Amino acid sequence: MEKRRRIIKFDLAAKTLSLVGCRVIRNEPLSNHCSLNIGGAAEFFIEIPNERSLVFFLNSVLADNYLVLGEGTNVLFPDEGYRGTVIRFTGIFKSISISKNEILSGGGALLSNVLKIALKSNLPGLEFVTGIPGTVGGAVYGNVGNRDEWISTVVKTVEIYKNLKKECLSKDKLNFSYRKSNLENCLITKVNFSLENETKTANLQKIFKNIQKRLETQPSNTPSAGSIFKNPDGYSAGKLIEEIGLKGKRIGNAKIDEIHGNFIVNTGGASSKDVIALIHLIKKNVAEKFNINLETEVKIINDRN
Ligand SMILES: Cc1cc2nc3c(=O)[nH]c(=O)nc-3n(C[C@H](O)[C@H](O)[C@H](O)COP(=O)(O)OP(=O)(O)OC[C@H]3O[C@@H](n4cnc5c(N)ncnc54)[C@H](O)[C@@H]3O)c2cc1C
To answer: What CATH architecture applies to the domain 2-92?
Structure first.
């Protein structure tokens, strides 16, 4: 009886959300929505096109247990799937506008599109994000960048939803560190980037160099989630993995990349368990040899709860 009541409640919420413009899909394979191509089904997968439908969603029973997903380029989903709702921003949340040296972007916009608009308008300051896949929401949440440059340096304000409340956070309320922000448990709906003075110009040379470096040092065309581990202070995780001789090591259909030791690639049909087994193997060997505790950069989403 309890199970039946739950089904009816969830059906009703799904129908209402469809009526306010959301795309609601049941049992959607998460492997279709992440760059590693791994993961079982989400009970509900909902695309949210505007703020009105977001508020409807947040007030519905489908928001009891949910996760916001961008392009899925920094996540590892469990093989068993996600018992709850996975949401993704579409529509208005993908819009980007420009005013003088500021770019206002929806949380669901692609970071590469923000870079394109900055370059078209000859605004410098974002060249370092060349080749980083994913959305603006995912990028700001994880403070993406390279060793020397992070996205937080160009973020002016962030609009979020937290506990049903909308807030606009200015710089003094934002806290960023290496691949981390204080935006846990928030929905990033808008980001205002403040780029460098209009008198400077975008550095195309830097863009070409970034593309070339990625082509030379990272696997292309093989599903991955980028760097699996954060670089420990003063070390390169990739180099440590190379030194313990694990490059090329396979478990099931997951493999430590031969070019970049900090990438685990899906050679075809890999499971989440294969990737996790490689993660444990690397951590164990690096700890034993170097007494260093590697911390994962990829977000490992919990099993069904
Ligand atoms: C080939 C490759 C190269 C990469 N190179 C780099 C690199 O050079 N530097 C780097 O830093 N990263 C790199 N990455 C990692 C990845 O691209 C970034 O972490 C990216 O910003 C993730 O964005 P996403 O939209 O895919 O987020 P997802 O993977 O979908 O989500 C990641 C996390 O962000 C949260 N999130 C997503 N959207 C929102 C939102 N709107 N509001 C709140 N939280 C949100 C999710 O809940 C999740 O916890 C690389 C990945 C790949 C596959």
So the answer is: 2-Layer Sandwich (3.30)
